[in-house]
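[Help] Beginner question about ligand-bound structures

Sorry if this is basic. My supervisor gave me a protein sequence and a SMILES string for zinc ion and asked me to "get the holo structure". I don't really know what that means in practice or what format the answer should be in. Inputs are pasted below exactly as I got them.
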Amino acid sequence: MTSKSKLVGCAAGLAVLAMTLLPTALAHNDTKPDAGQETLIHAGTVMAVPGQRTLTGVTIVVKDGKIAEIIDGYILRDGATIIDLKDDYVLPGLIDSHVHLSSEWNPNARLDGVTKESGDTAFDSAINARKTLMAGFTAVQDVGGPPEIFALRRAVNSGKMVGPHIRASGSAVSITGGHGDAHGYLVSITDMMRPETVCDGPDDCRRAARLAVKRGADVIKITATGGVLSNTNAGTEQQFFNDELDAIVEAAEKMGRKVTAHAHGKTGIESALKAGVKSIEHGTYLDDETVRLFKQYNAVLVPTVLAGMTVVDWAENTDWLPPNSRQKALEVGPQMQDMLRTAYEGGVKIAFGTDTGVSAHGDNAQEFVYMVAAGMSGEEAIRAATVTASRHIEMGDKIGTLEPGKHADIIAVNGDPRVDISELQDVDFVMKGGEVYKHEE
Ligand SMILES: [Zn+2]
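Answer (accepted):
No worries, everyone starts somewhere. Holo just means with the ligand present. The predicted complex, written as structure tokens, is below.
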């Protein structure tokens, strides 16, 4: 499931300019502490390194956007701001490794693809980024979508806009007629909508990977198999030839980029892993043999069960999915919970990811419930969304744990999420880079 393709406008720059004029709801607020100013968080229970170290009754000292120290007991210092989280469970900001901030599926989504201007997409992306942050997700990887994501990444990173840390791929590398190509409109329209990263043959696919890097990709996303929401009946198995996969991975590596592969079918997952892809998105039809390959290549799985559950719900309870997508939804969706169980029990490294943009932005934490239902402990699911996801998105030195020197990306909930994982669907406190964005009692 990748983002729908859309007409690529050249107004992204204008949209960014317009967004800086937005009211503070979307633009940056004025609560940022001054340089050198200390914030002392009195924290009750702290999952400092999820899966390893739980602290109780500590003060997290935040200074210049980073965690400066973690000190036993509740200390006070002259001039410092105190935040009382003594009754709360405090953990690193959550990380969603698979989102599509630019859009959200709805009955009119296919029309949106040919009616929304670049500026509309940019504004929607900004609103979705804010929702994501407020839900406790302080970092995301956006894997597939129009180029406005790069403008949003710049705006958030430079402090103009409110949102999580963003890593982005831009449009996915796909074969002609593949999951990342445009489908289901007049030929003249799909030809015009064809993303510039659609490629055929090793040379052309090298070009596509290089172009993705040139456009701003932090990571190269490929659509290794068909997908549910592309309006074509081309199935969900391997789509690239092996020499094309090799070419993409090698071209990406030469420019310092990892490749992540959307893949449902076993043939697509396994061919991608053998070509050196570092992670698989979805992984629907993996089996024990595939699990062995994941471990052999030390690859990461991003399961996105929430997306599977969402498309099944639409297929069963609505009438707006095109027939091609409805059929694939009914085939793929119900497999995903079992897929995660197989992968987890087989010892595959799992990074949290939701494919949000299929489901609604801000509902990302629903994935945790499915992870626990598939057999993971609450603590393991949290580790997947912090420690493992931070490494997977190549930000492990900056985020993913609460340790001195890392970004002060900190969230809190009222109840113990290791006992009741649904606590993470109601995050009460959100700090990103030392700045408080949300604090409810
Ligand atoms: Zn996706």
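A couple of things worth pointing out: The CA atoms of residues 142 and 327 lie 26 Å apart. Residues 94-392 form a domain with the TIM Barrel fold (CATH 3.20.20.140). Feel free to follow up in the thread.
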